[in-house]
Design goal:
By secondary structure, this protein is mostly helical. Helices cover about 85% and strands about 0% of the residues. It is built from two helices and no strands. α1 runs antiparallel to α2. The protein is elongated. The mean pLDDT is about 90.
Length: about 80
């Protein structure tokens, strides 16, 4: 009787979407942390070009992670 009440297709859709969202935000934010720490280390070593590249990586990854969060909030408020 309970089996008929559960929409397994919708449940699986929610499951893989949440796993994908969780992994993507974790990877992108990890790139932001990596970029920020490497930029700081390279700046101390005097390697300004590489430091700038890692700083740009950190900024872009931070913007993308913020965009993912905002997109998720928009999806939640629409439903």
């Amino acid at each position: 009787m309970i089996r008929g009440l559960i929409d397994t297709h919708a449940l699986l859709k929610v499951l893989y979407a949440s796993v994908a969202a969780g992994l993507s935000i974790a990877v992108v934010f990890s790139l932001a942390i990596l970029g920020a720490t490497r930029a700081s280390d390279l700046r101390r070593e005097g390697r300004d070009g590489a430091s700038l590249a890692y700083g740009v990586l950190a900024a872009i990854a931070l913007l993308i992670s913020a965009a993912i969060v905002v997109y998720g909030l928009v999806l939640v408020t629409r439903k």
